[in-house]
Design goal:
This protein has eleven helices and nine strands. By secondary structure, it is an alpha/beta fold. A five-stranded parallel β-sheet has the order 7-6-5-8-9, covered by helices on one side. Strands 2-1-3-4 form a four-stranded parallel β-sheet, with helices on both faces. Strand 3, helix 4 and strand 4 form a beta-alpha-beta unit. The longest helix is centred in the C-terminal third of the chain and has 21 residues. Bound molecules: phosphoric acid mono(formamide)ester (CP). The site of phosphoric acid mono(formamide)ester has 9 residues, from helix 2.
Length: 310
């Protein structure tokens, strides 16, 4: 199998369609491993990974840790709140100290946009961005595309509608960059105050009325309302948001029969999506989580496993 010719995975803005395709192809092989009863291969034996999370995470952190275990890597996890950061140590010093212990790859989630790029410039180890502020969440974008590709057999030519707080969403940005490169048409919908200011540069269409946006849609992606990143006054109330923009069966009447409903999680049930849809037959929300393990195994393999010099 080929290796990615890059040190880091920082965003899908900078990855080519060929690189994305290589990750998705590799994830398909990895998914076969996680379907086995004994989920263990020696691929990353002797390779060392640091998981550094300065923000809460369930799916991303657990799936990276499982990916490392399934591939026999040695890994340590450090939470920002229990690290020496709270004693005033800088991010660069923290990671350089861990790097001299032999760490070859750092998985980092950080509240500041650009933190992963900064870290990648500061250390020799590979860096995988597990979400940086409002910028990108590339592994989520890749696992979403893998889920779509597995379910639909293609990405090119599909209409993907992203509904909700696009402005504050690193998941939306990574999906937009990736999906556009893979030939999908991306439409965003939601209140104008939650739309990104650089919409033209992102190359997406905007349709403020959800019922119109979803007409003929192949995939609808609901986004979590990023309450922690919002200034006040961007929409009147959660109740009003749910009434005007929340996804429910009535609102999706115009979408295609074989529609996929996605959400990166965590889900605010009854706000951005109804439980009926989140748990319904079109939902692939839990499949997205399974895809996350396969895609993260693929990335670790492509960054570390395929290039080891003995
Ligand atoms: N989708 C996602 O990033 O979820 P977590 O915050 O739980 O990692």
């Amino acid at each position: 199998m080929q290796a990615l010719r890059r040190k880091d995975i920082l965003g899908l803005e900078e990855m080519s369609a060929e690189e994305i395709t290589l990750v998705l192809d590799t994830a398909r092989s990895m998914r076969e491993i996680i379907q086995r009863k004994i989920k263990k291969v020696p691929t990353l034996r002797g390779r060392t990974v640091l998981n550094l999370f300065y923000e809460p995470s369930t799916r991303t952190k657990a799936s990276f840790e499982l990916a490392q275990k399934y591939m026999s890597a040695d890994s340590v996890s450090v939470a920002g709140t229990s690290s020496s950061l709270v004693k005033g140590e800088t991010l660069k010093d923290t990671v350089r100290n861990v790097e001299v212990m032999g760490v070859e790859c750092v998985i980092m989630r950080h509240p500041v946009s650009g933190a992963a790029h900064y870290l990648a410039r500061s250390i020799e180890a590979s860096v995988i961005n597990a979400g940086d502020g409002m910028h990108e969440h590339p592994t989520q974008g890749l696992l979403d595309m893998f889920t779509i590709w597995e379910k639909k057999g293609r990405i090119e030519g599909l209409k993907v509608v992203i509904v909700g707080d696009v402005r504050h969403s690193r998941v939306a940005r990574s999906n937009i960059w990736g999906l556009k490169k893979m030939g999908a048409r991306v439409v965003i919908s939601g209140p104008p105050t939650l739309m990104p200011p650089d919409r033209a540069e992102l190359g997406v269409d905007y349709c403020p009325v959800v019922e119109e946006a979803v007409e003929g849609a192949d995939v609808i992606m609901a986004l979590r309302l990023q309450k922690e990143r919002q200034e006040s006054g961007l929409f009147p109330s959660l109740r009003e948001y749910a009434e005007l923009y929340g996804l429910n069966a009535r609102r999706l009447a115009g979408a295609n029969e074989d529609l996929l409903i996605m959400h990166p999680g965590p889900v605010n049930r009854g706000i951005e999506i109804s439980s009926e849809l989140a748990d319904g037959p079109h939902s692939v929300i839990l499949e997205q989580v399974t895809s996350g393990v396969a895609v993260r195994m693929a990335l670790l393999y492509l960054l570390l496993g395929g290039v080891k010099e003995e």
